[in-house]
Amino acid sequence: MTLKYEQIFNYFEKKIPVYYKSDSIRTSQVQMAMDIADFVQKDNSDEIMIIEAPVGTGKSLGAMVPVLNELKNDTFNSRSLLYATATINLQGQLMGSEVPLLNHLSLVENSVVAKGKAHYYCHKRFLQNKEGAFSPRERTSLQEFFERSNTGQRSELEDEYGVELSDNQWRKVELEATKGECDQCELNKVCTTISHRKGFFSPSNDLMITNHDQLIQSYLNINNDRTPIIPVTQGVIVIDEAHHFLENFLGRLEKSFSLRRFRGIAKSLQTKYKLKFKKLMDLIQRDFQRVSGELKGFSQGRYKIPESTIRAFKSVYDLLNESINDYESGIGNSQQAMELDEWTETLESFIHEGYVTWVDYENSKFSAISDTFPTDFRWMMEYLSRRNKIIIMSGTLTVGGDFDSLIEQWRLKGRKVVTKQFTTPFDFKNQSKIYVPTDIPLPREESFVNGVFDTIERLIRLTEGKTLLLNTSKEHMDVFHERLKLVTDDLSVTLFKQGQYGVEKLTKNFREDVDSVLVGSGSYFSGFSIPGVSLTSVILNKLPFPVNDDPFLELIGQGYEGDDFFDYIRFPHMVNKLNQAIGRLIRGIKDFGIVTILDKRVFTSKQYGQSVQQILADQGYTLTRDWSEVEAFYARKVERGSEADYSAYSDELITVPPALNRPVKSSKAADQKTTNEKAEEKKPKLNGVTKRQREFVKKVCEEEGIPKIKGRYVEDLYIEFVSALYFEWKDIQPIKDDFPFRDEKEKALLTAFVPTKRRTFLPKCTKFGCNGNCSSKIKDEIVQYFEEKYDADQISFSESPNHCWVNVTPLTILYNGEFKPSK
């Protein structure tokens, strides 16, 4: 008889360490898993669990293992786990590291990553934008990617096809269409992006990894009687990186437009209104440039819109209504009238009561949101928690261990909330040093950039690269990146910049280029994990305070004024982001390095300096203002390593909730053996792989351009090897002839395997004599050909420029040699 808590101990004390070939067990992770297992199995409807688990806790596995184990045990409820992150980096980490482990433990059979639309490729947009935006090689690769990709994801394009597009290039091909528009697209039948995204609703998915935006938008769709992007009633929802969740909800609800798009109104106006609109536009532009110039280096954030701009919006609104009246009187184009009508609806949010508005000078964008936002957010949380167990997690949710600010901002007061806070296992005292220089100007001073650059250069020369420079504005990011080129060239180290490639690719390049420097902004404050010596220095350009009088913060901080508003709203926002930035440095027990904060207010501010110092000290960090101490610390770490002092794990340190001291209901988990383990017990003893066999497989994989094949047993290796070659239409007879079998018995056993599945490529109509005009006659001939030769069930055509794709069922017809791809 197995007790529930014994299962948790077994996973974390035995199975997981064996899988990772490590004897390291994290006390906080095991305790967290126990507490979550207790929460998930209880019949506590509407209760929400909030967890602060700092870097090093291992919170992803600490949450997924107990949840999935409980779902597996509970055979009477068909539930699954939805795991929502804020960053694409964390999604990639989960799919690349945690999910394979969960598969091995038989906790997951079918997992799917559901990324946001901007991470998927749209071939229709490529065909519209390909001229001038891409090189001939890129155009060829993108066409091949469309025809052969598995998911349509940008990361697949970069990793599997070696195509590294800049953010500007990617924006020309990223998916923008709605689900309904995709369903109507002429490429629908052959688009892997569409087929992959349809899989989000597969009932066989027991784990879905997605992002905040897709979870939020799916709720909003349901609330507006539209189809959700992903299912949101699976049973258990984990919201990780939850410090971003409220702002991401804002991003889904806000009405916004850019200055560039606003200027485009002129195209829909009659000539007699265009001069007046131009004058109003000039007024808005002057306001924008004036304030933006005053904010040089600090334009990131939400600022109140000047009253003169609001008055101009009101005048534009009146102008549009006049123009619409003209259209309705029969003067002009009805389509233009509809476009202007949409603009009047947008502008109403900026000139009428009931909305909070702001301008983002960094991105040239105006935004508005209903002042019911806090209530709207509360309704969403109530909807989700009535239908799921909700677990909210982050490394930074409290201020000094206090959850009050979060509970207040999320409007969870009065709700049944369970809070848990865990300590990091990392030894920050020995592994790191926080450096706050003395001889630098304040961030608001004009001399700031020049005044701190010498410190940045000195740090990069000390560490010989290995640096992440985080900026609270893109302006500072651009300036520092430009000025660092001479320094990095002199050191012969690579200089990367946010936006140069996709986030996942840029992270990979930085990790692998050990001595590189990455200059980034908001995207790299969280979800960016580089364990090892590739990152030994994190530099933060200033304390990441939100804007004074931020209209959105004033909305969620209703009821707080003066010092209370600072203490409960503004200061917690800064501290959480500061902790996120600092948390980029130490990601493992062997890591070491320096965090530099280029903001002397940590020591000089009478209002909050002492509080910042105390918060960092309570986490175990040591602060210094002495450069010689930084040099000595770094030299010692390079010589001796992290020298981290870790407390030994003991199960006696774990508090076992009483509810877990009961037998597991499900017999299938009773003996604590995974499906894989049981299968291994039933198998006859298999031979391992010889050195000659492994070298042969490696050599052929390199020659044939297929991914590296691995296998513990020769039977598994051979089957996967031959299947991969056959799938790519390679000739497998030489393998049967030349593979270094141990003996004739092994040869007879292995060569008896016959692969059956090939990669399919929908044929073009031009393959069957069509000139690309795709007449009805030639289509009838193609249909007849497939019916007579292959007894096809169904043939249809998808239009594409210069040809049609021929869709044929069953797809196994395309396994025939006639459809082998040309070289």
Describe the structure in your own words.
This protein has 823 residues and is α/β, with parallel strands linked by helices. It has 33 helices and 19 strands. The strands form four sheets. Strands 3-4-2-5-9-1-10 form a seven-stranded parallel β-sheet, with helices on both faces. Helix 22 links the parallel strand 13 and strand 14. The longest helix has 24 residues. The N and C termini lie far apart (60 Å). About 2% of the residues have low confidence.
Residue share in helix? 40-55%
**What is the residue-averaged pLDDT?**
88
Number of strands: 19
Helix count, DSSP H or I runs of 4 or more residues: 33
Specify the oligomeric state.
Answer: single chain
Given helix and strand content, the structural type is: alpha/beta
From the spread of the alpha carbons, the general shape counts as globular
Distance between the termini: 60 Å
Beta fraction: 5-15%
Outline the biggest β-sheet. Answer: 7 strands, parallel
Identify low-pLDDT runs.
667-672, 678-685
The radius of gyration computed from the alpha-carbon positions, rounded to a whole number of angstroms, is 30 Å
Strand order within the widest beta sheet: 3-4-2-5-9-1-10
